[in-house]
Write a structure and sequence with these properties.
Shape: globular
Helix content: 10-25%
Strand content: 5-15%
Radius of gyration: 21 Å
Order of helices and strands: EEEHEEHHHHHEEHEEEHEH
Number of helices: 9
Structural class: alpha+beta
Largest sheet: 7 strands, antiparallel
Oligomer: single chain
Number of strands: 11
Length: 421
């Protein structure tokens, strides 16, 4: 669309290899007791934070099912960042799938709008980006009070491309509901998302709404969100949308006049530098979220040199809305410095099927390319082209990696948990 201005940065994650499982070297942090008050009375200890389950899923490795921090530092490795307060977090190599460190990785917690990554990874392949849809009153049914909105209006037309920009940049629940209607409705979309989560072996995830709006049984985990992001980043359009820093979104349409557009900016502060957060060098997405039940959540992807990392942080217990970005940035810094200096504590498992058809393969309706065949025995993924742009101070490169799962991993589910919640 000629009236639109977009700036893109993109990142793709690729295949995985078995990771060496080792003994954790760090324990979970404890909350400090406050000092005495002004009257000399002992300070009150903070309310006890919810404790993670004593036993969690072991998908990806037995250590990932244990509570607390799991990391094994080799000589010369940097220490983990101090004062991490996220209830759950994970640092993983996006290409090899090695989990470099994790904290309560399988704790099932409310995901907020990071659930939109699963929504996009599920629905995006079936809706051509140039398809035009006129929004009806029924399309907007069920948008929860207080929802984040991009500004979709009834009786106006939008392309699928417009709506996905609204989902990723402004976390627009209105855009999610319209796309869900185009997918056959909310109920069908929720079922599709749940089925796709199970295909990805994201077995901590239970979907109640496609937009991540708070619901009592809607949960995911840092491990699952990282799997989901990694799957989404295989798709060209997903990479485009989550890597767009700002864009023009369609506004009013008056008879006989050109369509009006207004500017929208990505709510990912590590990308835009909003709220006093410095843009992170190499950031390329993926999705943030914030609700009353979930607190702040974030899954990010970044590249420095040839190394690509994924980091997910859920519900930091200190600071304001910036804490999730600050802790993510600290874990990125640690991860880039620690590569080759830690023994992995687990792995990101592949989908149940080698090509993850129909959802895990590239969106053919968008990219007009066939999905990649399975690799030769013992083979690994191969980095392909470089294509992308930059926005001002971001100056982030872009790359594409073919998805190739080693043979012998078809239909394997390591230590699967069948129960979702």
């Amino acid at each position: 669309m000629s009236a639109k201005k977009t700036a893109l940065t993109v990142l793709s994650a690729a295949l995985l290899v078995p990771a060496m499982l080792v003994t954790p070297a760090h324990a979970a942090p404890t909350a400090p007791v406050p000092p005495a008050d002004g009257k000399g009375q002992p300070g009150k200890a903070p309310a006890a934070a919810p404790a993670p389950p004593a036993s969690m899923s072991t998908v990806g490795g037995s250590l990932l099912g244990q509570p607390g921090t799991q990391v094994n530092l080799l000589p010369g490795a940097p220490a983990l960042p101090a004062n991490l307060t996220g209830r759950s977090w994970i640092v993983a190599d996006a290409e090899s799938g090695e989990v470099l460190a994790a904290h309560n990785a399988h704790w099932r917690l409310p995901p907020a709008s990071t659930m939109k990554m699963l929504f996009a990874d599920t629905v995006l392949p079936g809706l051509p980006k140039d398809q035009v849809h006129k929004v009806t009153e029924q399309d907007m049914d069920g948008v929860g009070p207080g929802s984040s909105l991009v500004g979709v209006k009834e009786d106006l037309e939008y392309t699928v491309h417009d709506l996905w920009l609204g989902v990723f940049l402004r976390s627009g629940n209105d855009a999610v509901h319209v796309l869900s209607a185009m997918n056959g409705g909310i109920d069908k979309t929720v079922k599709d998302m749940q089925a796709h989560a199970e295909e990805l072996q994201a077995l901590d995830t239970h979907v109640m709404s496609p937009d991540g709006y708070d619901a009592p049984e809607q949960v995911s985990s840092a491990y699952d969100l990282t799997l989901i992001a990694r799957s989404g980043l295989q798709k060209k359009d997903f990479r485009e949308y989550c890597g767009t820093a700002e864009a023009k979104f369609p506004g009013r349409q008056e008879d006989g006049k050109p369509r009006e557009y207004f500017e929208i900016q990505n709510t990912n502060r590590l990308m835009t530098g909003a709220g006093g957060i410095s843009p992170y060098k190499g950031i390329a997405g993926v999705k943030n979220g914030n609700t009353t039940m979930a607190g702040s959540t974030f899954t990010g992807a970044a590249q420095q040199g040839a190394r690509k990392l994924l980091v997910t942080v859920m519900n930091p217990g200190a600071g304001g809305i910036n804490s999730v970005y600050e802790e993510t940035a600290a874990l990125f810094d640690w991860g880039f410095a620690a590569v080759g200096k830690v023994k992995p504590v687990g792995e990101l498992v592949p989908p149940k099927s080698a090509d993850a058809t129909p959802f895990g393969s590239p969106a053919q309706s968008h990219e007009n390319k066939p999905s990649v065949a399975a690799a030769d025995a013992g083979g690994i993924g191969t980095a392909l082209g470089v294509a992308g742009g930059a926005l001002g101070i971001l100056a982030v490169g872009a790359f594409v990696v073919d998805r190739r799962w080693p043979r012998g991993r078809r239909n394997r589910a390591r230590d699967r948990d069948e129960e979702l919640v």
